[in-house]
Each structure stands twice: as structure tokens, then as C-alpha cells.
Amino acid sequence: MAERSTAAAKQGARTADREDARTPPLRPGGYEPADYAAVVVRSAREAGVSPLLVMTVLHNEAYKPHHPLLERLWQWWKPGASFGLANMHRATFERVRRTHGLPGRWQDLRDDPAFAVRTAALHLKDLDRSLARRHVRRYTRDELLALGYNTGERNMRAFARGVPPGPMARSYLRRFRAYRERAAEALADGGEPRDTVTG
After folding, report:
1. What is the domain range of residue 141?
2. Could you tell me if residue 122 is inside a domain?
3. Cβ distance 121 to 47 under 8 Å?
4. How many domains are contained in the chain?
5. Which of 4, 25, 64, 146 is 20 to 30 Å from 179 by CA-CA measure?
6. What angle do CA 81, 156, 109 make, to 5 degrees?
């Protein structure tokens, strides 16, 4: 009986996520990560990571349109492209799917924004588990996790030891820092209190 109620609760949460996670608009410039604040908060809390971290990553990854039709066209043109609101590559998705027993396929990330956010939050949690508690002081823990999201776990660990990031990673980090306040405002506007910056 308890198993049924747990399964029903999870199904109810997935349904609520889908209702809160409408399909991104087709028109360029119409996508706003703040529209997914409720899904970000639920997914981050379920994964055990900061909603502010997840929302800031979504802002950082909002550089291309995320409508499913446009992502299908993008995949046709560039088969190894990343999908979903959080731009996840297939190999990363498969690793997260196996680790957490997720249903679905990589292609589902483009069609289900809530699933994309949940998968990104779980990936950030996996990165957090692999990051040593002590790291160079020039980065906060969230900054290192964002760098790991962008460049991979091995590079994240190298940056944590003091290896300087390359130009693309530095650019990602600058954008992450610039979007931090905007992400906090999106969460506050979504009815949730602001998170403190984790270090």
C-alpha cells in the first residue's frame, strides 16, 4: 500500500511539473528561464541541490531557442547537438539515466521541459558528489559545479585544484556570475525565497 502511495505521489509531481513547464515558444527571443521557476525549485529540492544553481545554469544555457521543432531541426543539422532547456548531450544524459534509473530517452529532453530540468538537477548533484569538499578559493562551489556542467567532471576537478580554465570555460563562468542575480530574482518572483550563494 505504501508503494502505491509513493508511486502516486511521484506521478502527481510529474503531472504538476508538466503543467508548470509549458513548451518554450517558437519565436526567437521568447524563451525565459524564469517561466520554469516552480519546476526548478521542485527538481532542485528533489535532487538535493540549490535551486539558484539550477536556475543560473538555465539562464546560462538559454543562448538558443528551445522549442521542440527548432531542436529537431538543430539535431538534423548537427546530430550530436545537446537537447532541452539545459542543453544536455546524449552521453551525459545516458550516464544520469543509468545512475538514477530515469525513464525516457535523450530525445525526450527536447519535448518535456520538466524532464530536462529534473535531469539537469540530478546531473548537478552527481557533479557535487564527485567534487572534493576543499577547493581553490577563487571559485565558489556552485561556480565549479557550473563549470563541470559545461566542461565535464574531469575539468571541474582540475579547476578545483587550481588549473586555470580555458577561454570558453572562462566565458561560461563570466556569464554564470552575471546571471546569478537575475536567476535569484526569477526564483523570488516565482514565489520562492531567494537562496543564499553556496560556497
Report:
1. 2-189
2. yes
3. yes
4. 1
5. 25
6. 30
**Separation of CA 138 from chain center:** 23
For residues 63 and 79, give the distance between their C-alpha atoms in angstroms, rounded to a whole number.
18
Instruction: Give pLDDT tens digits for 131-178.
Output: 998 888 899 999 999 999 999 999 999 999 999 999 999 999 999 999
Q: Which amino acid is at 115?
A: F
Tens digits of residue pLDDT in 171-190: 999 999 999 999 999 999 76
In eight-state DSSP terms, residue 35 is G
Q: Tell me, yes or no, whether 199 lies in a domain.
A: no
Contact 56, 197 (CB under 8 A): no
Residue 75 grid cell: 539535431
CATH number at residue 88: 1.10.530.50
